[in-house]
């Protein structure tokens, strides 16, 4: 009789699990094994950290509203965390991933299971390592299909294809950033850009492995482009083919027909491409958009081949796309300013009109003073970066646990300023008094439910350039951008509060400004940082802590039974 009761219990439990799955979306399971793997690129072979031995790593495919459990086994040499870029993780910062912000690293020989909760995201996102520079080889796509019983807000494409733009370094990426931080100089630039892990025909020893996308004449494809490049925004185009951009950062936009896109590190775009050209071969290509001053960067071009099925003579010269010039700010701005939310009945937006928390945030490249001018950066100092003159110092234990348990013990301070402490001519002659920032782990507290507005202000300090700013835990509305200094009287009059794009990463124009808005309805500890990796390493970061609401449903979920312990990685 006892066995029958146990069986009844198991059946009831299984039924309950199925009902839970239907109510909250399906459940998916993935195993990710972090391991060193030999790869040959640019005429030489080296060992790189990978997931499951591939570059890019495996694709996570879900439907809107699903949940994925990803068990990460670390068989590498050092501690690593993973981040699910653009996934809001409602009430669940425990699985967001930035090292020593929401968790300590997964140590070699151990494993940790992330619970990745999808809510209203639909389209393309990506995952990547969030420890030092490991994301250069540890990354992959997240494909979020429409929920069951729904479809795209455009004709269903015949097929899909993913293109991940990446960086390849001949050297060891961990050694590159560690040496740069030790000497205070700029880190080495990458040696190539890649498309789906391959540099393409314009690099040495690469033409036999160039990535090829096989297409059928007359079919329309949903091309999912992800910029996983480490330190450069990118232009991207396909020869003789029109691009129709229909989504950015897993949110639908009004379709944009264009010959090229500009995409910053961290951003994703969904693009309809119809294979309507004479069957042949055509290059797709990508090179940097770089309008910065005093900035070292890789100025090369990666390529892949769009290859039509069928019988035809291979062209003696494969058509190559015309990309904007690398410093073409006008081309970058012209594309970015076209992006507007779809804002339809099926895909509405909700821009907060009442603002309770307003932050005016300057972005700057700085210097850290070195004793006896012993460093190799400017003036014998070390390069640094800051937000509101605070260069972020990553703690040795994670902020989330310190906050959740109420045991700060000096891990962080709640004194991140809501405006620059010493106003100056941000985009003009900045003088020497703005070069040296304060250093510390300062966070900003925000009440649950607050309408938040952040005005990012680029500055002319040392090396002005476009900054791709990314916020964890939220999608936000880009309500305005402009050149020069933000004017609190006239600039808001230019805001788009009707159909601003809902995104998770934006490019703040060089010596310009960008304003975002969002509702602080996701309690937790959420990292905000520039997605140019060298700037993150130098301190262009902060943390927003959204406090709990008044109910369990508006409060951070309890932590999982196991979190990676905090110890030296």
Automatic annotation (TrEMBL):
GO biological process: lignin catabolic process
Enzyme class: oxidoreductase
Any GO molecular function: copper ion binding
Enzyme Commission number(s) from the entry: 1.10.3.2
Major localization class: secreted
Keywords: Apoplast, Copper, Glycoprotein, Lignin degradation, Metal-binding, Oxidoreductase, Repeat, Secreted, Signal
Signal peptide limits: 1-25
Cofactor(s) needed by this chain: Cu cation
Classification via NCBIfam families: laccase
Family of this protein: Belongs to the multicopper oxidase family.
Entry protein name: Laccase
Organism of provenance: Malus domestica (Apple)
Upper classification of the organism: Eukaryota, Viridiplantae, Streptophyta, Embryophyta, Tracheophyta
């Amino acid at each position: 009789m006892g066995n029958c009761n146990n069986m009844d219990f198991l059946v009831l439990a299984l039924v309950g699990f199925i009902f839970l799955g239907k109510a909250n979306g399906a459940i998916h399971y993935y195993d990710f094994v972090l391991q060193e793997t030999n790869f040959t690129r640019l005429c030489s072979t080296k060992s790189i950290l990978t997931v499951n031995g591939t570059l890019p790593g495996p694709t996570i495919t879900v439907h809107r509203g699903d949940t994925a459990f990803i068990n990460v086994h670390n068989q590498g040499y050092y501690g690593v965390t993973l981040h699910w870029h653009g996934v809001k993780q409602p009430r669940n910062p425990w699985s967001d991933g930035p090292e020593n912000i929401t968790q300590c690293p997964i140590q070699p020989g151990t494993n940790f299971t992330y619970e990745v909760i999808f809510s209203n995201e639909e389209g393309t996102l990506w995952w990547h390592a969030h420890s030092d520079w490991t994301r250069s080889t540890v990354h992959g796509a997240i494909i979020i299909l429409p929920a069951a019983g729904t479809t795209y807000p455009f004709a269903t494409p015949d097929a899909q294809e993913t293109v991940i733009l990446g960086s390849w370094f001949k050297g060891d990426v961990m050694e590159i950033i560690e040496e740069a931080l030790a000497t205070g100089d700029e880190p080495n630039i990458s040696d190539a850009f890649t498309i789906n892990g391959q540099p393409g025909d314009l690099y040495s020893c690469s033409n036999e492995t160039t990535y090829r996308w096989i297409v059928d004449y007359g079919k329309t494809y949903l091309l999912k482009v992800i910029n996983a490049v480490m330190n450069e925004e990118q232009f991207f185009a396909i020869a003789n083919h029109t691009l129709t951009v229909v989504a950015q950062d897993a949110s639908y936009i009004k379709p944009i027909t264009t010959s090229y896109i500009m995409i910053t590190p961290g951003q994703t775009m969904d693009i309809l491409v119809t294979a309507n050209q004479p069957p042949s071969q055509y290059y797709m290509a990508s090179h940097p958009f770089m309008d910065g001053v005093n900035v070292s960067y890789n100025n090369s071009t990666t390529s892949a081949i769009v290859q039509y099925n069928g019988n035809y003579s291979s062209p003696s010269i494969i058509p190559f796309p015309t990309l904007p010039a690398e410093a073409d700010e006008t081309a970058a701005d012209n594309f970015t300013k076209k992006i507007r939310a779809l804002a339809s009945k099926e895909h509405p937006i909700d821009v907060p009109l009442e603002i309770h928390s307003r932050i005016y945030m300057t972005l700057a490249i700085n210097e850290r003073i070195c004793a006896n001018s012993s460093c190799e950066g400017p003036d014998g100092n070390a390069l640094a970066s800051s937000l509101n003159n605070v260069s972020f110092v990553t703690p040795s234990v994670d902020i989330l646990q310190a906050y959740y348990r109420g045991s700060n013990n000096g891990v962080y301070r709640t004194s991140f300023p809501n405006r620059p402490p010493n106003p100056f001519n941000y985009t003009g002659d900045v003088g020497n008094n703005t070069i040296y920032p304060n250093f510390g782990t300062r966070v900003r507290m925000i009440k649950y439910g607050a309408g938040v507005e952040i005005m990012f202000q680029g500055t002319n300090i040392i090396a002005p350039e476009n900054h791709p700013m990314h916020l964890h835990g939220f999608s936000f509305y880009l309500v305005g951008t402009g050149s020069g200094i933000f004017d609190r009287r006239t600039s808001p009059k230019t805001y788009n509060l009707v159909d601003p794009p809902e995104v998770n990463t934006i490019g703040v124009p060089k010596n310009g400004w960008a304003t975002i808005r969002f509702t602080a309805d996701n309690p937790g500890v959420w990292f905000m940082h520039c997605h140019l990796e060298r700037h993150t390493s130098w301190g262009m970061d902060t943390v927003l802590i959204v406090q709990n609401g008044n109910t369990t449903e508006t409060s951070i979920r309890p932590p999982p039974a196991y979190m990676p312990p905090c110890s030296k990685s």
